[in-house]
UniProtKB/TrEMBL annotation, chain A:
Cross-referenced SUPFAM superfamilies: FAD-binding/transporter-associated domain-like (SSF56176)
Gene3D superfamilies in alphabetical order: 3.30.465.10
Source species of the chain: Streptomyces capoamus
Domain FAD-binding PCMH-type: 1-174
Top-level taxonomic group: Bacteria
InterPro entries: Diverse_Substr_Oxidored, FAD-bd_PCMH, FAD-bd_PCMH-like_sf, FAD-bd_PCMH_sub2, Mopterin_DH_FAD-bd
Pfam families recorded: FAD_binding_5
Protein's name according to its UniProt entry: FAD-binding molybdopterin dehydrogenase
From TrEMBL, chain B:
SMART domains: Ald_Xan_dh_C
Example GO molecular function: iron ion binding
Domain Aldehyde oxidase/xanthine dehydrogenase a/b hammerhead: 122-234
UniProt superkingdom: Bacteria
Pfam family, any one: Fer2_2
Keyword Oxidoreductase: yes
Protein name: Dehydrogenase
Organism of provenance: Streptomyces capoamus
Family, as annotated: Belongs to the xanthine dehydrogenase family.
PANTHER family, sorted: ALDEHYDE OXIDASE 1-RELATED, XANTHINE DEHYDROGENASE
Keywords assigned by UniProt, alphabetized: Molybdenum, Oxidoreductase
Length: 275, 860
């Protein structure tokens, strides 16, 4: 839609764009959310896509995703055969409510910084133990764990003028076995719950990442493979106010679905183990 | 649109990103005479009804890879269609065509294409806002944040100081005339309880002020700068609470239409035929249950909007309406205008479903244009549609049925409490219409009590099914429960009790009626659905955690509204040898234009290519009550039939006189008249007539009386996931009695679209209010109308009947197809799970908690 209060776009920002930040600014990446709803508090947009950040770099240390990498590029990334979670990347893209047309513009960083409970790029990067590189307005750089970035519905740790520059997924996470489950109230709708389990090959440590059903991502870590009771107790231990209420789900249903799908994920990740 | 060949949504693409890149829109993809293959397929399928989504559908589909064509649920996630139910769109994408040609005089019964098809698929069809007028001003509305408040003051000064703002209108600036926004020929069937702008707001979202400015942006800024002081009043949202002693009264007015303003009762109906107490006393089994249907929105893809300007001293209003003639009458009344001082017309309208049977945008543009002399525009946002435009009435119905052991009904009693919201538009007529749900069954003892109640919520209005959909959910669910109590198959119970030809149609009173009903269409619908469900019974469930069941429901519907409905058609043979058919009916996807052309072509012995339709313009067409209640075919179609027939007779008489061949030996033959053995070209007759000062032209009127009945039966097989509560439709079938079929592809499309909309209302759409009565989810991303992936294919089975008094014995189909959908679903879910859901919608989070924890796996 027309953003009638926005009177200026910085189309060629400096390499460290935070230095110009002022109140009423917003970072513009794909724009697919910014332009989808009224933004009466905004006066100026700063176009980060003009900085041409490298979208995807696979190294021996892991995968670096530039914050302005489009969902289309992420979906199309040619995964080497020895990296396991290619299907999780694709499933996370497919978890968007939006279609492939939006993927042509929407970015990984934009989805993370929007910080909605159902943001699938949050699910993906938390599940794969990513670290986010943040650039503050004063030029300083800090790193936060993906798990700690989103603090609530549409809330995160970014300070005014701070931006997400890069997401790094460590090499070891790319070699984990993964299993995921997603549920939405309509067939291909916005996530009611989106759960990912990861397991180190030949080890018993298991991470369960719970998103969409919770106001912020929740990771439940098991040093050994949990039995049904341990799994249920760990989900019951999630504070009641973390379960999310919105038109895409109720807290009770989300907790119920989480119990159900967590058990399925554990079964899938332990399939083939010696009894 | 495409940017450098890649499809994107233009509305969320910053315009500067198009700089230096190639932009392709529907107009650039192809044009008439040089269509892109995908445009041709959408015309041939036909893959559209109103056509508002078509540009997006075509631009998306034309960019598909082969893989995407194989995965349409995902590939079409970003394209919503509210009309078709998506089967026709799938056909278009895959190149399956249904459009047929017709030989002269044989258009009825053929799936000829819509007159506007080429314009729709090439982007040339103009919708309401597809125009530009120099110097046009824009209106934006400030909406009330409170559900009930008195406006103490509005300080306009800061708003008027915004550059570009011309005017701020409040209640002090509008004619103090109460009216009803509801569109009916007889304005007295709705209460006059609404001002254009009022000093009291009665729902969150109601207009407080309107700002007129050079740009939308300046008008929005003006709204933000208005300082409004409110005296907040107590609010009531539930109709039972609103009727209780001590509830805050919404309308203190002494309007005689309002039955009980102290208890917020707009209208009460109490009808009693026979003696229900005696009927229940005679029953072997009694079932009683309370059923509720929530507020749902039309979500027509084109929002409401109007543009007004002055031309030659007259007010012109271009609007998105289902009835320009009634909109015109209301503007005449509100602004004291002589009828010849204004014109109201529609371009193509992007969906209606009853939502545009209201005057809710024309009044403000007329106000501003009459005030300033400048062209003005008001276009609703999607959010305004949800928060301020008239949704379906929430209704709660208590149904009590008594029956003998053999299933014979002994008593039917219904209590209906309807929430009309803050205003009474359609509040009365919808509860009268609800009587149809008790009409469908033969029973000597019937009681119907209904209350239409004001509450501090968005005013309800007309929506496909008009007051019958909610009672159909209640009565058809109750019949299913009764069947189970009696251990009788639900279809068999219906078969034993439905009204049959020759029996009176009794709903609210036992007296004379104007309904002609001589064939047993409903019984045949029931038979067809029973066969179809049996034929498909062996399809496997999706998996071991799914519970499978079937459900059915029926409905019966009169083919025109009981209130006055009339239409006038004019037919003229022009010098270009094309017949001009002028009729007021608006086209918004219901397909009446195609049907009118077919009817005229048949009457005139020609093909649709020789008919030019002029429609929905009060300067160029006669009066037409409006395209609603399926009257566009039944009433306006009769007017077209008669006018075309009159022109034909005039031509034949003229030809007979010229040739000396008796008129009974003269027949129309496309571009000529056959007079015995001689073929006289129309060109010759027209030229001759002109020299004699004669024109081949005629006008005819038609009325919505007498009426016929149309009926249908819906069957579903569903699977319910035992853990998640997800409902999947495995099979959907609807049998319908549409009389003689004018256009098979269109009838199928209407039924499929109605079923899809019904599925949305039953399964996915949920209008959430917060404690203050403010809608929580006024966006299409959170109010989920069905997408491609959500809609199953529906098998459409047609009963052919010949008892209609409609044109060519046809019956309108667009309305009633929705009524049996929700109860058939709820009945199927009950059959699958053993759990009865008496409140819609059946969303997973409402379903899962009531499912049995464990259920033995069925065997055998």
């Amino acid at each position: 839609m027309d953003l009638n209060t926005v009177t200026e776009v910085v189309r060629r920002p400096s390499e460290r764009p935070g230095t110009d930040w002022r109140e009423g600014d917003a970072w513009l990446a794909g724009g697919t959310w910014l332009y989808s709803t009224e933004q009466p508090d905004l006066r100026r947009l700063i176009d980060l896509t003009a900085l041409d950040w490298e979208p995807l770099v696979l190294t021996d240390e892991g995968l670096e995703i530039g914050a302005t990498c489009t969902v289309r590029d992420l979906y199309a990334f040619p995964w080497p055969e020895d990296r396991t979670p290619g299907s999780l990347f694709r499933a996370s893209c497919e978890a968007f409510l939006s279609s492939f047309k939006v993927w042509n513009a929407a970015t990984v960083g934009g989805n993370i910084c929007l910080s909605l409970p159902a943001g699938p790029m949050i699910t993906l990067t938390v599940a794969l133990e990513a670290r986010y590189e943040l650039w503050a307005a004063d030029g300083s750089v800090r790193f936060v764990d993906a798990l700690d970035f989103v603090t609530g519905d549409h809330r995160n740790v970014l300070a005014p003028g701070e931006l997400l520059r890069r997401v790094t997924i460590p090499e070891h996470a790319l070699r984990r076995r993964t299993a995921h489950r997603r549920f939405s109230l309509t067939r291909l709708g916005r996530s009611t719950v989106f759960l990912v389990g990861t397991r180190r090959p030949h080890a018993s440590q298991l991470f369960l990442t719970v998103t969409a059903g919770t106001t912020r991502p929740v990771r439940i870590a098991f040093d050994s493979l949990p039995d049904a009771r341990a799994l249920r107790q760990s989900i019951e231990a999630v504070p009641a106010d973390v379960w999310f209420a919105d038109p895409n789900g109720t807290p009770d249903h989300r907790r119920h679905l989480t119990r159900h799908f967590a058990a399925e994920i554990c079964r899938e990740l332990t399939a083939g183990d010696p009894p | 649109m495409w940017l450098d060949g890649a499809p994107v949504h233009s509305c969320i693409t910053p315009a500067f990103r198009a700089d230096g890149r190639e932009v392709t829109t529907i107009e650039g993809l192809g044009r008439p005479g040089a269509l892109h293959p995908v445009q041709r397929r959408f015309a041939q399928a036909p893959g559209f009804q109103c056509g508002f989504c078509t540009a997006g559908m075509i631009m998306t589909a034309a960019a598909f890879t082969e893989d995407q064509k194989e995965d349409l649920p995902r590939a079409l996630k970003g394209n919503l269609c509210r009309c078709t139910g998506y089967r026709a769109i799938e056909d278009a994408v895959k190149g399956v065509g249904a459009v047929e040609t017709a030989v002269p005089g044989k258009a009825v019964g053929r799936s000829v294409g819509a007159p506007a098809a080429l314009d729709v698929v090439t982007g040339r069809a103009e919708f309401t806002m597809d125009t530009q007028i120099d110097g046009m001003l824009h209106l934006k509305v400030l909406h009330s944040p409170h559900a009930h408040a008195r406006i103490v003051s509005v300080d306009k000064s800061a708003a008027l100081a915004v550059p570009g703002v011309h005017r701020v209108y409040t209640w002090e600036d509008v004619p103090r005339r109460r009216f009803t926004t509801a569109i009916h020929t007889d304005h007295l069937v709705d209460p006059d309880d609404t001002y254009i702008l009022d000093d009291t707001v009665r729902f969150a979202g109601q207009r407080v002020a309107a700002v007129l400015a050079d740009t939308v942006g300046a008008a929005e800024e003006g709204c933000r700068r208005l300082a409004v002081e409110y005296e907040v009043l107590p609010a009531v949202f539930d109709p039972e609470a609103a009727m209780a002693d001590g509830a805050p009264p919404l309308h203190g007015s002494p309007d005689p239409f309002v039955r009980d303003p102290v208890h917020n009762i707009l209208l009460e109906l109490h009808s009693h035929i026979g003696d229900v107490d005696a009927g229940f006393a005679a029953a072997d089994v009694i079932h009683e249950g309370t059923y509720s249907s929530p507020r749902v929105q039309h979500a027509h893809l084109e929002t409401h909007g109007s543009i007004a300007w002055i031309q030659d001293g007259r007010l012109n209003v271009r609007t998105s309406s289902q009835s320009p003639p009634i909109a015109k009458v209301k503007l005449e009344y509100l602004f004291g205008l002589r009828p010849d001082r204004l014109r109201v017309f529609c371009a193509r309208v992007g969906g209606g479903f009853g939502g545009k049977q209201e005057v809710i945008s024309e009044d403000l543009v007329a106000l501003a244009t009459l005030d300033t002399g400048r062209p003005t525009c008001l276009e609703y946002t999607r959010e305004e549609e949800f928060t301020t435009a008239s949704p379906r009435h929430p209704m709660t119905l208590t149904v009590k049925l008594g029956a003998k052991a053999d299933g014979t009904l002994t008593a039917v009693q219904v209590r209906n409490v309807s929430n009309t919201g803050a205003y009474g538009n359609h509040g009365g007529e919808t509860v009268y219409a609800g009587g149809a749900a008790v009409m469908i069954y033969r029973c000597p003892n019937k009681k119907y009590d209904a209350y239409s109640v004001y509450t501090n919520t968005v005013p309800s209005g007309a929506l496909r099914g008009y007051g019958m959909t909610q009672p159909a959910f209640a009565v058809e669910s109750a019949m299913d429960e009764l069947a189970r109590a009696l251990h009788i198959d639900p279809l068999e119970l219906r078969r034993r009790n439905i009204v049959r030809p020759g029996e009176p149609l009794l709903a609210l009173h036992d007296g004379p009626d104007d309904v002609i009903f001589t064939e047993d269409g409903l019984a045949r619908c029931i038979d067809l659905v029973e066969d179809a469900l049996a034929r498909t019974a062996d399809r496997p469930p999706p998996g071991p955690e799914w519970l499978v069941g079937t459900g059915v429901a029926s409905s019966l519907h009169e083919t025109a509204p009981p209130t006055e409905h009339l239409s006038e058609a004019w037919v003229t043979l022009g010098d270009d040898l094309v017949y001009e058919v002028c009729v007021g009916t608006v086209e918004f996807g219901e397909g009446t234009s195609t049907a009118h052309v077919q009817i005229a072509a048949d009457q005139l012995g020609t093909t649709p290519s020789r008919i030019r339709l002029v429609q929905s313009d009060t300067d160029r067409t006669g009066f037409d009550t409006g395209a609603f209640a399926s009257a566009g075919l039944f009433v306006a179609g009769n007017a077209v039939l008669r006018a075309a027939g009159a022109v034909r007779d005039r031509i034949l008489r003229f030809a007979a006189a010229r040739t000396g061949v008796h008129v009974v030996l003269c027949t129309m033959d496309d571009d000529a008249v056959l007079c015995g053995d001689r073929r006289v070209p129309l060109a010759e007759l027209v030229a001759l007539a002109r020299t004699g000062g004669i024109r081949f032209t005629a006008a005819r009127k038609a009325y919505g009386s007498p009426r016929s009945v149309t009926s249908n039966t819906q069957g579903f097989r569903v699977a319910v996931h035992r853990v998640t509560g997800e409902i999947r439709i495995l099979y959907s079938v609807q049998a319908a009695d549409a009389g003689v079929i004018v256009n098979p592809a269109q009838v199928r499309g209407q039924v499929e679209g109605g079923v899809a909309q019904g599925i949305g209302f039953a399964l996915t759409e949920n209008h959430h209010l917060d404690a203050g009565g403010v809608m929580v989810n006024p966006t299409l991303r959170n109010y989920r109308i069905p997408a491609y992936a959500d809609v199953p294919r529906t098998e459409v089975l047609l009963v052919d009947s010949g008892d209609s008094v409609g044109p060519m014995r046809s019956k309108g189909m667009a309305e009633c197809c929705i009524n049996p959908v929700a109860p058939a679903l709820a009945n199927a879910v009950h059959d699958a799970t053993g759990v009865r859901f008496r409140a819609l919608p059946l969303t997973p989070e409402r379903v899962y908690g009531r499912l049995p924890a464990e259920r033995p796996v069925p065997t055998g």
